[in-house]
């Protein structure tokens, strides 16, 4: 089901979009992400690192676990690394033209909640021609904890608005869990799911 088919049947006025694999596919070599700080991550928690290496824990859960235990210094380490990684390895992006067109022609109660970094998110939205369509843009630098933690939603949420009016549009289990943890509904965007790029 497309979002513009879902919305008329569901009373959602505040739309929160994920970026990567939702509005577009960022061409990033995620398999190489930890290489630049592998030694530091192993020193922090060898067992947890090997769980990440074996795909037994997601990258966001791995990072959230470390930040929860070691605080701001580790958050800064991870953000600095992610900014360098995304800035130096991003090879472009493939737009989800259906959603981009929807946003270009839609109302003004829209937000971004992404674990990507501010430079990546801002530059990508500008290239897509939709940067000015969002009331707030929440990135990895704006929160201590990444999705599925609900912290990002608290930076968007207006307590005068019923949560049932909000909808998170994303592609992953992490997005779905973030919506559940925030107490809002979730719409799965599967545009990139069956496509090979």
Secondary structure blueprint with pairings:
Layout lengths: L2 H4 L7 E4 L6 E3 L11 H7 L1 H8 L5 H12 L1 H18 L3 E3 L1 H8 L5 E4 L4 H11 L7 E3 L12 H4 L11 E5 L2 H10 L2 E4 L9
Parallel strand pairs: 1-4, 1-6, 4-5, 6-7
Antiparallel strand pairs: 2-3
Helix pairs in contact: 2-3, 4-5
Structural summary, described in words:
The chain has 197 residues and is an alpha/beta fold. It has 2 domains: 3-26 and 94-188, Rossmann fold; 30-89, no CATH class. Helices cover 42% and strands 13% of the residues. The protein is built from 9 helices and 7 strands. The protein has helices at 3-6, 38-44, 46-53, 59-70, 72-89, 97-104, 118-128, 151-154, 173-182, and strands at residues 14-17, 24-26, 93-95, 110-113, 136-138, 166-170, 185-188. Strand 6 (166-170), helix 9 (173-182) and strand 7 (185-188) form a beta-alpha-beta unit. Helix 2 (38-44) packs across helix 3 (46-53) and helix 4 packs antiparallel against helix 5. It starts with a helix and ends in a 9-residue tail after the last strand.
Properties at a glance:
globular, 197 residues, Rossmann fold, single chain, two-stranded antiparallel ribbon
Q: What's the story with the biggest beta sheet?
A: 5 strands, parallel
Helix content: 40-55%
| Largest sheet: spatial strand order | 5-4-1-6-7
Order of H and E elements = HEEHHHHEHEHEHEHE
Poorly predicted parts:
none
Distance between the termini: 22 Å
| Count of structural domains | 2
Give the class from helix and strand content and strand pairing: alpha/beta
> In CATH's first tier, which class of the largest domain applies?
Alpha Beta
Provide the β-strand percentage band: 5-15%
Computed over alpha carbons, the radius of gyration is 17 Å
Instruction: Give the name of the CATH superfamily of the largest domain.
Output: HAD superfamily/HAD-like
- Approximate shape: globular
Number of strands: 7
What's the pLDDT, averaged over the residues? 95
């Amino acid at each position: 089901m497309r979002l513009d088919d879902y919305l008329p049947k569901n009373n959602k006025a505040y739309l929160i979009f994920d970026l990567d694999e939702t509005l577009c596919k960022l061409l990033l070599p995620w398999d190489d992400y930890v290489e630049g700080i592998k030694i530091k991550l192993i020193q922090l928690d060898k067992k947890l690192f090997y769980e990440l290496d074996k795909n037994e824990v997601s990258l966001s859960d791995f990072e959230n676990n470390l930040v929860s235990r070691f605080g701001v210094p580790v958050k800064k380490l991870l953000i600095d690394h992610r900014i360098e990684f995304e800035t130096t390895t991003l090879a472009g992006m493939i737009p989800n033209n259906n959603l981009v067109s929807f946003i270009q022609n839609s109302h003004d109660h829209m937000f971004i909640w992404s674990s990507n970094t501010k430079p990546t998110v801002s530059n990508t939205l500008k290239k897509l021609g939709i940067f000015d369509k969002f009331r707030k843009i929440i990135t990895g630098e704006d929160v201590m904890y990444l999705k599925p933690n609900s912290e990002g939603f608290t930076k968007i949420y207006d307590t005068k608005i019923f949560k049932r009016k909000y909808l998170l549009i994303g592609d992953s289990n992490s997005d779905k869990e973030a919506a559940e943890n925030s107490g809002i509904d979730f719409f799965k965007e599967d545009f990139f799911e069956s496509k090979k790029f």
